Amino acid sequence: MDRRTFIQSSSACVTGSAALLSPLAALAADDIGVGSIHDLSGGLDIYGKPMLDALTLAIEEQNAAGGLIGRKLKLVSYDPQSNMQMYAQFAQQAALKDKVAVVHGGITSASREVIRPVLNRNKTLYFYNTQYEGGVCDRGTFSTGVTPAQTVNKLVPYAMKKWGKKMYVLAADYNYGQITSQWVKKYALENGGTVASIDFFPLDVTNFGPTISKIEAAKPDMVVSALVGGAHISFYRQWAAAGLTKKIPLASTTFAVGNEHIVLSPEEADGFLLSYNYFENIDNPVNKAFKERFHKRFGKDYPNITELAMGTYQGFKLWAEGVKKAGSVDIAKVTTALESGISIDAPSGKVTIDPATHHCILNVSVAEVKSKKLNILQTFPQEKPTDTSAVCNLLKNPKDNQQYVIKV
């Protein structure tokens, strides 16, 4: 791959105080503010609530260890309610009024592209901790989630070897689904496969009956889903109700990051294939200790620690290491420190900042849904974000500020 393969309303309200802060109250003069812009209501709250939980735990652990550079951390939480206008407003408030040192936030790629320019203009460091479609090249942003070269590149060939070469793709109708579906197509074609169709759906769609009929008529060897949000869970229920779960297998780039595998019955979801950086049953001492702390803080009955929750926890830990190395929360100093290639020994394994792209080098696994659990089938160690590194080098081009998009 090289650069030529790419081309380029409501009023504010929020859970919490009138100042739009978390219940922790306003920042003291010496506190370090950590902004959280995660959907806690609306259609994307199935992702946002676990992300806030993970960030809360990370901040509490850091404060218990003495804070950072001799200062306490304070969580400043905003609920954009899955509304892009509120994302923009809260990003501006975090930077200008509340003067946080860093913002961890955004779930959809659309929300990221609202937050990112606001924080850039106001010189506030931004961590986007969600698995996404890749290609963001911006020195003010660290994209710590997995990208298609790390996950789709493993999931598609694995599924094709298991099930066959013809696939039907379903995707959410915004930049994540549109771009990720092209990565699915790319890896399918590279492995000798075909794509019968790529169908897109707005986030509020709940009726998939006509689409299910189209899939049946196309007779694919598998369905690949990049559906997103609470409304799209309807597809999996309707798919099972049509008796197709056992007839046409399914792989997904998004399933279970909102704990859909727990909401659905085993009859509706067993056998689905997934690929992420983190699964709860990763067997290492760091993950075992982390799960004990997490469940002590949030309850033994907490359903599942998601990929996005872990991404947020790891994103905070990377930022904290950058602050320690810089001896400051100054954005320029912390960015330079992070660009030294900082690594952490995380619950998912070793995670390292790739200096040129501001993405991460990390482990990736393929897993299968079974009886509301995610069972790891194969792990691929220290995968690099090669999709983004093919087009982005912030060490050579520090003023680059765009998202490169695959063209198949």
Please tell me about this protein's structure.
The N and C termini lie close together (11 Å). This protein has helices spanning 45-64, 84-97, 109-121, 152-163, 175-190, 209-218, 233-241, 260-263, 266-269, 285-298, 307-326, 331-338, 386-389, and strands spanning 6-7, 32-37, 73-78, 102-105, 125-128, 136-138, 141-143, 166-172, 194-201, 222-226, 250-252, 273-276, 343-346, 349-354, 359-370, 373-383, 401-403, 405-406. The chain has 2 domains: 3-147 and 282-364 and 383-406, 3-Layer(aba) Sandwich (Rossmann fold); 152-252, Response regulator (Rossmann fold), CATH 3.40.50. The strands form 4 sheets. Strands 8, 9, 10, 11, 12, 13, 14, 15 and 16 form a 9-stranded mixed sheet that branches. A 5-stranded parallel sheet has the order 3-2-4-5-7, with helices on both faces. Strands 1-18 form a two-stranded antiparallel ribbon. The radius of gyration is 20 Å and the shape is globular. It has 408 residues and is of the alpha/beta class.
What's the gist of this structure?
This protein has helices spanning 45-64, 84-97, 109-121, 152-163, 175-190, 209-218, 233-241, 260-263, 266-269, 285-298, 307-326, 331-338, 386-389; strands at 6-7, 32-37, 73-78, 102-105, 125-128, 136-138, 141-143, 166-172, 194-201, 222-226, 250-252, 273-276, 343-346, 349-354, 359-370, 373-383, 401-403, 405-406. With 408 residues, the chain is α/β, with parallel strands linked by helices.
